[in-house]
Structures are given as structure tokens and as C-alpha cells.
Amino acid sequence: MSLVRRAMGTLIHQAYTAIRHAGAISPASPAGYRFRRLGDGVSIAFPPGAIFGEQWIEIGDHTLIGERVSISCGMGPGVDLGPDSILRIGGSCSIGRGTHIVAHQSIDIGHDVFTGPYVYITDQNHVYDDPEVPIGRQWPRNSPVSIGSGSWLGAGAIILPGTTLGRQCVVAGGAVVRGEFPDHSVVAGVPAKLVRGYTAELGWHAPGVALTMEQQATAS
User: Is 108 helix (H, G, I), strand (E, B) or coil?
Assistant: First the structure.
């Protein structure tokens, strides 16, 4: 019986590996043709999450997207979102499994951006303008999102509308981010705040640290 079980297990794993390979979305696969641009070497792992609005999505060369990642533009399939791309993911990125990237107006993700699993990025939020109307029935509000090249987003991080992250930023796992953060920022918390920064004069330092007189003289 153990030999039969071992043989069956081997066949199942081999079959699943073949299914995953065949089901991955690449520039050469039929599903890849629906994208505005799918760069060389791009792979969207099988099984994917919800993917629609492909004609408004651009993904750069050699970006890898994990299993069950949802990438969408608009509220649902079949909506005309205009002539320009809405979601742009740069080259050589790695998007962790279970991540959701939901675009309605503009999301820019630079090159070499890595995310942990289950990150959520959106440029649209629900509003609470009328306290008598159910929140889900009120018209949502959009604000563009930009994530600089070389950044890392930890597992479970949430990037809210209106966020701008500079180059080489780190977002701690579970952080809820809104606002503008300069290059080389480390942000953490709910809501996320700057906890560490970098400048050529000071190196890594806590926020609000000022240059000493000697450092000011050296910098000048």
C-alpha cells in the first residue's frame, strides 16, 4: 500500500506542477495578449487571482507575480476606462502571493519593487460624506498612488489612495500607509509614520534629527 500511495503522490505532484506551468500567464500565452503590455520574461503564477481590465495594465520585463494575486482596473470587466494605461508595474519586480492591486485612476510601481504576501494597494477609497447612506452605496474617491523603484513592502502592508513612496523605501509588515514619504524612508505602524530615514550627511537616522554644527560645515 505504501508503494501505491507513494506512486500516486508522485503522479499528483507531477500533474500539479505541469498544470501550474501550463496555467501561468506569460507574454506568449493567450491570456497575456489581453494586456496593454506584458514585458519579456513576465510570469503570473497559476492559479491567479481576479484579473480584469488588462488593456489598461502594463507590466515590465522579468517581473514575477505570485499565486492568487489579483490585478484589476475599474469596478469590473467590460468598462471603458479611457485611452491611457492606469496600472503600471515596472521591470524586475516580485509581487508576493495573495497580493491585491486595485486601480481606478493611476497606480505606478517602479522597477525592482518587492512585496511580501497579502499586500493591498489601491487608489480608491470609500467615503462617509453622508452618514445616512450606507457606505458601500456612496460614490468612492480616487487619488493616485506611486511606489518608488527599489522599495520593499512587508507582508500584509496596505497602501492607501494618495500615497507617494520615494525610491528605496521600506514599509513594515502590517503597516497602513497614506501620505508622502521621501527616498530611503522606513515607515511602520497604523497609521504608518516615518521611523527612520537616510541622508548622505547623517546616514541612517531617526526622524527630526538635525545636523550638528560640524556636520553643517562639512555639508556646506
Answer: strand
Domain chopping of the chain, boundaries: 26-219
pTM here?
A: 0.89
Q: What one-character DSSP code corresponds to residue 64? A: E
95 touches 123 (CB < 8 A):
no
Please provide residue 193's backbone torsions phi and psi, each rounded to the nearest 5 degrees: -130, 160
Are the beta carbons of 162 and 179 closer than 8 angstroms? yes
Contact 81, 61 (CB under 8 A): no
Residue 2: per-residue pLDDT: 83
Which residue's entry shows cell 521611523? 195
Q: Residue 62: which pLDDT band, with cuts at 50, 70 and 90?
A: very high
CATH class assigned to 26-219: mainly beta
